[in-house]
Amino acid sequence: MSKNQELADFIWSVADLLRGDYKRSEYGKVILPLTVLRRLDCVMAPTRPAVWDRAASYTGENKDGLLLAASKLKFYNLSEQTFDTISSDAANVAKNLKDYIRGFSSEATEIINRYEFHLQIDRLDNADLLYQVVRKFAGLDLSFEAVDNHDMGYVFEELIRKFADASNETAGEHFTPREVIELMVELLLAPDDDRLNGEGQVVKILDPACGTGGMLSAAEEHIRKLNPRVRVNLFGQELNAESYAICRSDMLLKGHTAKNIRFGNSFSQDGHDGETFNYMLANPPFGVEWKKVEKVVRQEHEDRGFDGRFGAGLPRINDGSLLFLQHMMSKMQPLKKDAAGDEVGGTRLAIVFNGSPLFSGGAGSGESEIRRWIIEHDYLEAIVALPDQLFYNTGISTYFWIVTNRKPADRKGRVILLDARDQWTKMRKSLGEKRKEITRAQIGNICAIYRDALSIASDEAHPDHGRVKVFANRDFGYQRITVDRPLKLRFELTEDSLAQLGASAAVKKAVGGEAAVELLLAALKPLLGSQWSTKAEAWDAMRTAMVASGVLWPSAAPFQKALRDAVGVTDPEGEVQLIKGKPEPDPDLRDNENVPLSEDIDEYFTREVLPHVPDAWIAETRNPKTKETERFKLGYEIPFTRHFYVYTPPRPLAEIDAELKALETEIQTLLSEVTA
C-alpha cells in the first residue's frame, strides 16, 4: 500500500467516530473540510507568528497585501487559534474552531464556506464528537515537508473516491485516474516542446470541468519539466462544491490565483467569458443531460449563433458532451503570423468522451452538424481509443479527442485514429469499475506511436501499423439518401375491411353519420370475398354496389384514402399506385443509404441499389429552413471500431465437434464416479 493510500485511509478512519450519528453518505461533509483546514493550518504554521506581528504593528487600513507578504502564501489567518490550541481545550472546542475559521483571509474563507462546515460544527458539538474529531486531525502532519502538493492531490482524490463509494455517487464525475491524465497531457503538449522552451513564455490552461484540479496540476508539472522558467496560469470551473473547494485550495497552496477557479455550471454561468487559452483539457461527465440549462443554451444558440459558444448545433438533451467541446473551442486563441511569417497563437485542447459523440445522431442532427463543423474546419487532429475498465465510475471504452486550430503542416486536412485499447495492465486490486491501468512504459509507447503516426500508417511492415489509420477529413462525411420504392397493392373486401370502414371517422364524416355508415356497409356486404387486381376495378365494383343500394359515393379525399386503407393489400405483384402520374412511395419499403462524400450519389445508386431493386428511386424532400428541394442530407460520423475491425473466422466444425465429444466424455467420467 502506498504512503498516499495509507494517509487517506488514516484520515478516513475518522468515519469510525462518526458512525451512528452520521449516515455513510454524510461522512465527507466532515472529513473533506477538516482535511482542507488541517492542510492550511500545517502550511501556515511557519509564518503565523510573522503574520500576527505584522497585524499588531500596522494599525492602518488596507493591510491585506502586507499580511500576504508576511505569510509568504496567498492567504493568512489572523486568529490566535491553531489546531493544537483548539484540540487542547475540550470545553471550548466549538467556539475556538469557529473563531479560527473566521480568522482566514477572504480567498480561504470563500473556499471553506462552500463546505457549509459551520452546520457540521454545531452538529458534531451536539453529538459530543467535535473534540474527538478535531483532536484526531490535530495529530496529523500535512505540512509541505510531510506531504507535498503532488501527493496531497492523490490523498484528496482517494478521499473523494471513498466519499463517492459511501454515498453511491459516481467518482468519475470528480476526478480522472492519474495515468490517464498523464497520457492526455503528453499527447496534448508533446508537439509543442519547442514552443514551450522559449524565453518569457506565459501559458494559460483551462479545464472547464476541473474537479479537484488533477488535470491542471499535471499539465503544469509537465510544462515546468520542459521549462522551469515558464509562467503557467491555471483556470478552471467546477459544479460540485466539494471538488471546487479542494481544487481552489490546491491552487491557493501552490501560489496560483485561486479566483481563476470558478464555481458553477460552465454552460449557464461561463466563468471565463471572453477569455482565450493556449491549452485546454477536460473530462466532462459521460452522458449527462443538459435539461436544467436548456433554456439558456438554446437561447444562446438561436440568438448568437457562431458569435456565441454553440453555433455549430445542439446535441440531444440527454448528452451534453459535445456542448462541452463547443464551449472549449469558443475559447481557442486565434492563429496569427508574426513579422517573420511564423504562426503564433492558436490553441490545442484534449477532451475525454465515451463512444457516443463519435457517431450518435444521423445526417442533419445536432451531433452530426457539430462533427461536420469541427472536421470541415480542420480542427480535429486525432482520436485515441483507450482501454475499457480504466475509469472509476464506468467500464465502457473511452476516447481522447485532440482538437486544434494550428495543426502541423503535414497533418492539415487529415485525422489520425490511434487504437490504444490493448495498452493496459491488470490492476492487483480493483477500484470501483477500474480494473486496468496504463503503465509509464505504455504511455511512452502510445505517445511515440502518436508522434510518428503518419510514417507508421504508411509503413505496412511497421509493428504498430495496425494501430494507426490516417484519413482525409472528407472520409468521415457522407450523403444520406432516401431510397423509395413504389406502393403496390391488390384489393379485396373482407370482414376486417368492413370493420375498419365502420370504425373510420373519415368515413363517418363523409357519408353523414352512423346510420349512413350502416347503409354503406350493408351495400358492400354482398361483395365480401371479392378480389380485384386494380384499383379501378375495385372502385367500379364498390361504387356500383353502393349506387344500387341508394348510397352516395363520396369523392372527398379523406374517404378515398380510408377506403383504400381498408381494402388495399400490399403485394409485390400488385398494381403500382400513382399520385399525379408518378409512383407513390411505399413507406414500409423506404430505406436510407449513406454515400461517401467522394462519390456521386447517382453513380452509387446505379451501382449499389438498382441491381437489387430496379424500381427504386432517390426521394426528393423540401428543406424546411432553406425551402429548397434536396436529394440528400450531409452528415459526419467517425466509425472508429469499424475501421479497426479485424475479421476472425469461426473455428472449423470438426474442431468444435471434437471439443464437445471430449466434454461429454469428461461429464460421463464424473457421473460414473458419483454413482460408483
UniProtKB/TrEMBL annotation:
<dbReference type="GO" id="GO:0003677">
    <property type="term" value="F:DNA binding"/>
</dbReference>
<keyword id="KW-0680">Restriction system</keyword>
<dbReference type="GO" id="GO:0009007">
    <property type="term" value="F:site-specific DNA-methyltransferase (adenine-specific) activity"/>
</dbReference>
<protein>
    <recommendedName>
        <fullName>site-specific DNA-methyltransferase (adenine-specific)</fullName>
        <ecNumber>2.1.1.72</ecNumber>
    </recommendedName>
</protein>
<dbReference type="InterPro" id="IPR003356">
    <property type="entry name" value="DNA_methylase_A-5"/>
</dbReference>
<keyword id="KW-0489">Methyltransferase</keyword>
<dbReference type="Pfam" id="PF12161">
    <property type="entry name" value="HsdM_N"/>
</dbReference>
<dbReference type="InterPro" id="IPR051537">
    <property type="entry name" value="DNA_Adenine_Mtase"/>
</dbReference>
<dbReference type="GO" id="GO:0008170">
    <property type="term" value="F:N-methyltransferase activity"/>
</dbReference>
<keyword id="KW-0808">Transferase</keyword>
<feature type="domain" description="DNA methylase adenine-specific">
    <location>
        <begin position="149"/>
        <end position="453"/>
    </location>
</feature>
<feature type="domain" description="N6 adenine-specific DNA methyltransferase N-terminal">
    <location>
        <begin position="7"/>
        <end position="137"/>
    </location>
</feature>
<keyword id="KW-0949">S-adenosyl-L-methionine</keyword>
<dbReference type="InterPro" id="IPR022749">
    <property type="entry name" value="D12N6_MeTrfase_N"/>
</dbReference>
<dbReference type="Pfam" id="PF02384">
    <property type="entry name" value="N6_Mtase"/>
</dbReference>
<dbReference type="InterPro" id="IPR029063">
    <property type="entry name" value="SAM-dependent_MTases_sf"/>
</dbReference>
<dbReference type="GO" id="GO:0032259">
    <property type="term" value="P:methylation"/>
</dbReference>
<dbReference type="GO" id="GO:0009307">
    <property type="term" value="P:DNA restriction-modification system"/>
</dbReference>
